[in-house]
Design goal:
Elements: E1 5-11, E2 14-17, E3 23-25, E4 31-32, E5 37-40, E6 45-50, E7 55-58, E8 63-65, H1 68-71, H2 85-100, E9 211-215, E10 220-223, E11 229-232, E12 237-241, E13 254-257, E14 274-275, E15 303-307, E16 310-314
Antiparallel strand pairs: 1-4, 1-6, 2-3, 2-5, 5-8, 6-7, 9-12, 10-11, 11-14, 12-13, 15-16
Length: 321
């Protein structure tokens, strides 16, 4: 019988839908109940653990109903036999020994596959199978008895005698003239640089409705809208949608607040540290992002950015103090 479970890890927006249609957004530590439907969003993933020691994970844009069919798949359909590691190692050792002894490996005598339906060397019907082709090395070496005798290269050259002029007549000395050609500037090759985008990211699709949501509180890895993996500290990442706290996004509907709510009420830090890794090529690299201080607290809205070993502090006060 299906028992309730606990959300162990979550990323993005994941909802639990009860039988009467009631929805709730899941967080780490929430309980999932029997016959609830778990639905993940465009960027949502979830891992749930159950009292019997089993776990279930669900990727993006997926749904599952917590019942006996989904949690106990072996209750109605027999599973295939699982080959143990020792059996697999013994089988590989036997094949290697046969090859060392010069035996021909006949695939038709091997054990049936895990499904146990079609042997390796059988054909069940038209366009529905394959056969094994054995190519034996017969050592086909022989000495040819026809043609022409071949020899190596045997060519000699007579010695060349050089005449040494100890005092040549200067009037007979040849002269060489040199002409210098300067290229026109228009003919000089030019090398132009090309801008390459190394990273682009947003968190637009984590919140569906107006309000705020804490992602990864307690420390976690978060995958953004463009597939970049970010590491967040114990404060988590607060994503706000709409005009929350008097601030709106410069583009889209969602923005990030770097002083997150303490949703778990554990008394930990609420200042967010968000980081990722990117390979920076030789040359010049530019980091661009949107930033605005809180309308009600510009003095407490400073932000530190570290990029390629360079540290920049953004002062939230208008006068720069």
């Amino acid at each position: 019988m299906v028992d309730s479970g606990i959300v162990q890890s979550i990323s993005g927006v994941v909802k639990a839908v009860a039988g009467d249609g009631t929805e709730r957004v899941l967080q780490v530590g929430d309980r999932v109940l029997p016959n609830e439907q778990i639905v993940t969003g465009d960027a949502g993933t979830i891992i749930m653990g159950f009292s019997d020691g089993t776990s279930m994970d669900l990727g993006r844009k997926a749904s599952v109903t917590l019942n006996d069919d989904s949690l106990n798949p072996d209750s109605g359909t027999p599973q295939q036999a699982v080959q143990t590691l020792d059996d697999a190692q013994d089988e590989v050792a036997a094949i290697q020994q046969a090859l060392l002894e010069g035996k021909i490996l006949d695939a038709s005598i091997l054990p049936a596959t895990a499904a146990g339906e079609v042997p390796v060397a059988s054909v069940s019907g038209e366009d529905d199978g394959y056969v094994v082709v054995n190519i034996d090395y017969m050592d086909p070496r022989q000495t040819p008895g026809s043609g022409f005798q071949t020899d190596g290269i045997n060519v000699s050259f007579s010695e060349i005698h050089k005449e040494l002029l100890l005092q040549p007549d200067e009037s007979d000395m040849p002269t060489v003239g040199a002409t210098t050609v300067l290229p026109d500037d228009d003919d000089m090759p030019s090398i132009s640089g090309q801008e390459v985008q190394l990273l682009q990211e947003s968190f637009e699709n984590f919140v569906d409705a107006r309000g705020w949501h804490i992602e990864g509180e307690g420390g976690a890895s978060i995958v953004g809208d463009h597939g970049v993996v970010w590491v967040v500290n114990e404060a988590g990442l607060e994503i706000q949608r709409g005009n929350i706290g008097g601030s709106t996004a410069s583009d889209g509907d969602s923005h990030v607040e770097l002083d997150a709510h303490d949703l778990n009420h554990d008394g930990g830090t609420t200042l967010t540290v968000l980081s990722t890794q990117v390979n920076i090529p030789a040359g010049e690299a530019t980091l661009a992002f949107d930033y605005q201080p809180r309308p009600a607290d510009p003095a407490g809205s400073d932000m530190k950015v570290i990029f390629a070993g360079k540290e920049v502090l953004l002062d939230g006060q208008a006068d720069g103090s």
